[in-house]
Amino acid sequence: MPRVRCDSVANTGLSKFLAWFLIVFFATACSERVELQKFEGFTQGTTYHISYWSEPAVDARNLQQAVAGELERIDNVLSNYRADSLIESFNNSESNASQEVGPEIVSLVKIAASVTRASQGCYDLTIKPLFDLWGFKDDVLNIPDQAMLFSTLANVGMDKVEVVDDTHLRKPAQVRVDVSSIAQGYSVERISRVMEQNGVRNYLVEIGGELKTQGSKPDGGAWRIAVEKPLPDQQRMSKVLSMPTEHALAVMTSGTYRHYFDVNGKRYSHVLDAGTGKPVSHDLVSVTVLHEDPTLADALSTALLCVGQQQAMQWADAERIKVLFVQQQGDRFVETKSQALAASGLSIE
């Protein structure tokens, strides 16, 4: 991460299509009281960056080791890119019997299932076969015929994943559970807990562009976060959020503009509707959710993006979810806020 100078702005590098953020740290290293501490690394196929300060000071080396250890543990449980992870052992089993997957995976499946119902089936953890079918895995567009689509949809649906108890799941052998749309939010929450368990009360935790803040900067000012403008192949700041200092808040963004195919004037987004099996075709290109729970916020950002502006706004207003929406209408980007965000008093410049 670039060094931060007084009155300067530093951006994190964003990795792959799952991250849609620029993290901005304003004027922090010049505090006379205490210095901002930072460390970073690689995890889950992307990067993480952590900034914090503490009085009294904590052991920086022990803290970094604790964070690295927790990230490795999460990877062993939730990574869909490791054949030896717990989630992939569950996916690769040919048994239709109940299988022990542990409390974390069951908890994430329960949260995701509630979001699936709220999205009327648009958001779904079992959508990976459709993602591969359309060619997003190999970055080569494949437009399936109706027969191929129906065949693949037969193995998609959260209703095919049964929660047996707090540590066991059951599913047909052909169904696969991909937690990538919720795992980074969960990881942000887990690392935030590690920070607090080690005595840190003021921090910014960011993994792959998904983040949570607690407390303030060393000078007492708010953490400030820059939301990226939804432009393909560019990283330009659109809005700056001043985070609350009195309580923790997560910021999660999903967008259609990072991974897509343009063919014959038509765009095929990597955001797929699990109900139809097809890429979404509406004009909603970016959804930013502000929520106390990073895990739920991660799932919500994808689900709200999936259903489109009208349904997403109705959903957000009914559930009082703080959301910033961005629609692309021709060459213009149109921003709207949910009622909860508009009434929150949060500074968005």
List the helices and strands and how they pair.
Blueprint: E1 21-24, E2 37-43, E3 46-53, H1 60-78, H2 86-92, E4 99-100, H3 103-118, H4 128-133, H5 146-153, E5 162-163, E6 168-170, H6 180-197, E7 202-207, E8 210-214, E9 224-228, E10 237-242, E11 249-255, E12 260-263, E13 266-269, E14 272-273, E15 278-279, E16 284-291, H7 294-307, H8 309-319, E17 322-329, E18 332-337, H9 339-342, E19 347-348
Antiparallel strand pairs: 1-9, 2-3, 3-7, 4-6, 5-6, 7-8, 8-11, 9-10, 10-19, 11-16, 12-13, 14-15, 16-17, 17-18
Q: What does this molecule look like?
A:
With 349 residues, the protein is of the alpha+beta class. It folds into 2 domains: 21-73 and 181-348, Roll (T-fold); 78-178, ApbE-like superfamily (T-fold, Orthogonal Bundle), CATH 1.10.3980.10. It is built from 9 helices and 19 strands. It has helices at residues 60-78, 86-92, 103-118, 128-133, 146-153, 180-197, 294-307, 309-319, 339-342, and strands spanning 21-24, 37-43, 46-53, 99-100, 162-163, 168-170, 202-207, 210-214, 224-228, 237-242, 249-255, 260-263, 266-269, 272-273, 278-279, 284-291, 322-329, 332-337, 347-348. The strands form 5 sheets. Strands 2-3-7-8-11-16-17-18 form an 8-stranded antiparallel beta sheet. A 4-stranded antiparallel beta sheet has the order 1-9-10-19, with no helix packed on it. The chain has a 3-stranded antiparallel beta sheet with strand order 4-6-5, with helices on one face. A hairpin with a 2-residue loop joins strand 7 (202-207) and strand 8 (210-214). It is globular and about 65 Å long. Mean pLDDT is 88; it is low at 1-32.
